[in-house]
Amino acid sequence: MDTVITISRQFGSGGRLIGKLLAQKLNIPFYDKEIIVKAAENSGFAKEFIADNEQKHSGFASYAIPTSAWGGISWSNLDNFEAKIYAAEANAIERLAKQGACVIVGRCADHVLKDKVKCLNVFVFADDEERIKRVIDVYGDATDRKKAQKLLRDKDKSRARHYRYYTDAEWGDAANYDLCVNSAVFGIDKCVEMLAAAYLAFDKK
Amino acid sequence: MDTVITISRQFGSGGRLIGKLLAQKLNIPFYDKEIIVKAAENSGFAKEFIADNEQKHSGFASYAIPTSAWGGISWSNLDNFEAKIYAAEANAIERLAKQGACVIVGRCADHVLKDKVKCLNVFVFADDEERIKRVIDVYGDATDRKKAQKLLRDKDKSRARHYRYYTDAEWGDAANYDLCVNSAVFGIDKCVEMLAAAYLAFDKK
């Protein structure tokens, strides 16, 4: 029972909540922001610095960092903040994953752990209508429909760019994952149930 | 219990077999080639003609048919064979789907039935290694690894082009479906079990 579940998710799909409830159901640890803290603790960066910078990928593509910058990490060769943060997070993810079964949300964990740890890689997405509703009513990140739509578009673009940059693969392309589920169609609880069943089936293999 | 399950699948993923076993498990009809026959019966085309032509999409993109050619069918405006066949198949799919719950494999059924019939849209895919094995050992469509690889590439391209042409969406993009499953990871039987559970959850909604 040492399989790690990685969850990539569209913003507003409830993927983080699904991951959290799934970890509770399976009684295994759940990691998202904690990874940043771990990364901070072990890389010498101040936590605040990482928290401030780790989501700012807007000017990201202008850095000339090789895609493989995070692999076989050579600190002295990394001369920009984002790559260092990514590398610190990748190190933390790998260390956590090697401690045993857990759920890790986001941060290209599927790619970081590829060929290193047995993973069930999941992608959670949802219809735009449901995502807009969630962004307004649950996250409280937007006050109206138009703002929510813009936020979805921006977040989708940012995550896709980030994923493509580090993995050379397309975020949301089914073939990158083991299981993709539309949370708007099944609802949060049923998604958790389905993923738990899939995890148990997978872990037995 | 009138939800239709549509299955899009990568060649060599076992998606057709999964669909067949799923239909058996749920005790509902299963359609793939039968659709062609139905289409033939109701459109005036000879069955042989359709069987000969319906998979030949190599020179397809050169025809100047609007993407919406099959919708609101106006026969006199369709001046090429492929579009007529697609329209005949779309008609047949819609007619079959409206008879009640069933499993339909391939033929852009997800797109044909959009906003017309309640559908659970599934995409089945698999790792290349597993697909190559299946193409050689199960289908017997290739005698060696190299030929199998070429066949996979050709089929993937052909299905992606066909899907893109008629739906304006990307084949294999998770967000087009409700559930995507890697059959190499779970195995055929477990996929059937998972899809049956998803179907029952979905149908209750």
Structural summary, described in words:
The structure is a homodimer. By secondary structure, chain A is of the alpha/beta class. Chain A has nine helices and five strands. In chain A, strands 2-3-1-4-5 form a five-stranded parallel sheet, sandwiched between helices. Chain A is globular. Chain A starts with a strand and ends with a helix. Residues about 55-80 of chain A have low confidence and may be disordered. Chains A and B meet through strand 4, strand 5 and helix 9 of A and strand 4, strand 5 and helix 9 of B.
pLDDT averaged over residues of chain A: 80
- Secondary-structure-based class of chain A equals alpha/beta
Low-confidence stretches of chain A: 57-78
Whole-angstrom Rg of chain A? 17 Å
Tell me the series of helices and strands of chain A, N- to C-terminal: EHEHHHEHEHHEHH
Most residues in contact: chain pair: A-B, 25 and 25 residues
N-end to C-end Cα span of chain A: 11 Å
Number of strands of chain A: 5
> Biggest β-sheet of chain A: count, sense, barrel?
5 strands, parallel
The spatial strand order of the largest sheet of chain A comes to 2-3-1-4-5
User: Which outline of chain A best applies?
Assistant: globular
> What is the tally of helical segments of chain A?
9
**Beta-sheet strand percentage of chain A?**
5-15%
Q: What is the assembly state of the chains in this entry? A: homodimer
Helical coverage of chain A, percent range: 40-55%
